[in-house]
Every structure is written in structure tokens, then in C-alpha cells.
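quick one before i forget lol
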Amino acid sequence: MNDAEALARRIDALEMRLVHQDEIIEDLNNTVIRQWKQIDLLTHRVTRLGDRLAAAKEGSGLDPEQEPPPPHY
């Protein structure tokens, strides 16, 4: 095998690795995008729950720590 053939094989191997790495990067990017969408959804839900909790506290008129204990105590 001469130097030109060896060089051609090395270039082919590098090109195959590059294509494989590009596919992996694309897959990782798609995973990150899906995770950010899920994080945004969960953040929105936590915010809504916090708002509902605050509204429930205001609606009860009492601070939960000031409420009398339940009768079974």
C-alpha cells in the first residue's frame, strides 16, 4: 500500500467519524430541545400551583399556622 492509498483510507475514516458525530450532535440537540420544553411546562405548572395556593390562603382568611389543631389532637 502506498502513501496515497493510506492517506485516502485515513480521510475516509475521518469522514465517516464526522458523519457519525454530526448525527450524535443532532440527536443530543433534539433531546435538549425536548427537555427544555418539558422544563418550561413544569415551571408553568409550578407557578400556577403557587398562585392557587396563595389564593387558597387568602380565601381562608387564616394563616395555616394560626388555625386550631384538628379535633383528634
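fyi The chain has a mean pLDDT of 90.
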